[in-house]
Design a protein that fits this description.
Elements lengths: L1 H9 L1 H22 L3 H20 L12 H16 L21 H5 L4 H33 L15 H13 L4 H18 L3 H21 L8
Length: about 230
């Protein structure tokens, strides 16, 4: 634990990249192992992610939530786009499976009204609302966007627009999602917030709003909506 914190303290790159990849490895493991592992590893990932944020927070100064009307509008708009575009484009089957086994539906596994299923759903919504946004925004918008422009990325202001970095990072962000098209638009919108506000916090808030609304939508609709989890 101490060595991990020391590496975060000593390296701005490590502080922004390592926590994200730890999170990503657990996500990938859950998908590869399948079965009940996809439920339990996601729950574990939420708690590990919270610990990672706790460890990196003192050394990643830009990882501070910020609230603005722009963040609220973008968060809601991306939710509408994410759901509304769904029937109209092919999904990303290059990196993601689209089978009954791959669907994250704890009610189908543990039973309707199951307390275990509800606990897993609540943990997932909490994770996608409070844990995923800081980790992803720090990696994509703070590190990857700026590092692609200059290696001493911490010297680059957040409001500096670089067209190549803007497009590439947005595409990468989109392609790591099953719903790749709204993912790309989402990446552009969140990056636009960072550029407009010259800080990361509004993008974290917008990301959290989008994810929370998706979580509520999934629980409300269920059925085919589980693909948005």
């Amino acid at each position: 634990m101490n060595s991990f914190r020391e590496k975060i303290r000593s390296s701005p790159v490590y502080a922004r990249v390592a926590p994200f990849f730890v999170f990503l490895i657990i996500t990938t493991a859950g998908g590869l192992m399948g079965g009940d592992w996809k439920f339990w590893l996601y729950a574990a990932k939420v708690f590990v992610g919270a610990w990672l944020i706790w460890e990196m927070r003192p050394f990643v100064k830009e990882m501070r939530w910020a609230f603005s009307w722009e963040a609220v509008v973008v968060g809601i708009l991306i939710f509408v786009i994410w759901v509304g575009l769904d029937p109209y484009y092919p999904k990303n089957h290059l990196f993601w499976e689209d089978t009954a086994e791959s669907v994250w539906d704890p009610f189908a596994r543990f039973g309707e009204g199951s307390s275990t299923a509800w606990a897993l759903v609540c943990i997932r919504i909490a994770g996608m609302t409070l844990v995923v946004p800081p980790l992803e925004e720090v990696f994509y918008r703070s590190f990857l966007y700026r590092y692609g422009v200059q290696t001493n990325f911490t010297e680059m202001p957040f409001n500096r627009f670089h067209p190549t970095a803007f497009i590439v990072v947005s595409i990468v962000f989109g392609l790591v999602h099953f719903q790749w098209l709204p993912g790309i638009l989402c990446g552009m919108a969140y990056q636009g917030l960072v550029l407009r506000k010259n800080r990361l916090g509004d993008a974290i808030t917008a990301h959290a709003i989008t994810n929370f609304l998706l979580g509520v939508y999934v629980v409300w609709k269920q059925g085919d909506a589980w693909k948005f989890f």
